[in-house]
């Protein structure tokens, strides 16, 4: 079960889903914490969706001629729907990539104080070097970075829950906590689908199709639960709630957290950018590294949008749109396995 390709897929899937919004706590506050105890049910439901649909995406990728998310869309949704969603997903990926650059610039400016030109030059260099190693390098990078991110978040959340008497109080309880959990899973599954559909050559064992998404879901779900419980102890929320959790714990936790947020930004940017570049390769004759340089150059001037507004409005919007792809994926999987099995 703990085979090398399984662990690579696990950490790559988690890396795709853990972005700046997750690492800062913004996503968790808006989608789960505000629902108090029922928010935990939303977490469990969201985690289940991420595991189940991750398995479905890998199953199709492994058993069909799939190299990009567009190939996957053609199989599960047909050509007409695939063309429409190809445009939507490409915009989502580029937008997410741009926002991660903006988040990286903000992180460097607030903690180092360097100007935008230096920040963007450093971000561009890091991204280009990360991309230039290709999918194998990206998988290895995630295998190292994601465990570090998990460890730091667990330490901060556990310490926060221990010292806070309010970790299980506060918040408001709207009635649509399950819809919120489904929406969270849905827009994250856009990037999940993009990443999982591009790593067919890295799957060496059929068991990885199940255990990769399963382990990823367990890791992600555990972190979601910890952050949800920990942030309920906060009397008010800043733009980076997880820094509010780390502040009472001393500078050592702060210095651990800032790099971990940077890791989340990097892995999310790589997930979005790689999926977009691979798709653009199908549409053009340009080389991988050339396309990487192009999207970085275009994204940097547009990165003044800011990631907070993306989380509040754009992510849920794409989440609602992706409900259709989730439905079509389920229908395809049932037809392919349940119905065909009964016919035989």
Automatic annotation (TrEMBL):
InterPro entries: YkvI-like. The chain crosses the membrane at residues 41-60, 81-105, 117-135, 144-164, 176-196, 208-233, 253-276, 288-307, 313-334. Keywords: Membrane, Transmembrane, Transmembrane helix. This is Membrane protein YkvI. It comes from Alkalicella caledoniensis.
């Amino acid at each position: 079960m703990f085979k090398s390709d399984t662990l690579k897929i696990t950490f790559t899937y988690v890396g795709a889903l853990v972005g700046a919004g997750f690492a800062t706590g913004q996503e968790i506050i808006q989608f789960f914490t505000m629902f108090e105890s029922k928010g935990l049910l939303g977490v469990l439901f969201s985690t289940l969706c991420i595991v189940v649909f991750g398995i479905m995406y890998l199953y199709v990728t492994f058993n069909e001629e799939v190299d990009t998310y567009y190939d996957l869309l053609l199989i599960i949704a047909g050509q007409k729907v695939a063309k429409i969603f190809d445009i939507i997903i490409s915009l989502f990926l580029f937008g997410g990539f741009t926002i991660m650059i903006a988040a990286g610039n903000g992180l460097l400016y607030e903690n180092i104080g360097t100007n935008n030109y230096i920040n963007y030059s450093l971000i561009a260099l890091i991204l280009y070097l990360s991309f230039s190693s290709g999918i194998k390098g990206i998988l290895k990078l995630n295998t190292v970075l994601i465990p570090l991110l998990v460890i730091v978040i667990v330490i901060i959340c556990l310490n926060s829950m221990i010292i806070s008497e309010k970790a299980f109080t506060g918040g408001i309880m709207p009635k649509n906590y399950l819809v919120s959990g489904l929406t969270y899973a849905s827009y994250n599954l856009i990037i999940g689908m993009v990443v999982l559909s591009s790593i067919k050559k890295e799957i060496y064992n059929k068991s990885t199709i199940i255990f990769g998404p399963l382990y990823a879901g367990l890791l992600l779900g555990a972190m979601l639960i910890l952050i949800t419980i920990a942030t309920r102890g906060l009397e008010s929320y800043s733009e980076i709630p997880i820094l509010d959790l780390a502040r009472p714990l001393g500078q050592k936790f702060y210095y651990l957290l800032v790099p971990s947020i940077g890791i989340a930004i990097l892995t999310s940017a790589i997930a979005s950018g790689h999926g977009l570049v691979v798709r653009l390769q199908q549409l053009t004759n340009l080389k991988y590294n050339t396309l990487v340089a192009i999207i970085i150059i275009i994204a940097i001037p547009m990165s003044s949008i800011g990631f907070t507004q993306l989380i509040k409005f754009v992510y849920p919007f794409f989440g609602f749109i992706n409900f259709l792809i989730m439905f079509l994926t389920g229908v395809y999987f049932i037809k392919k396995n349940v119905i065909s099995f009964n016919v035989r």
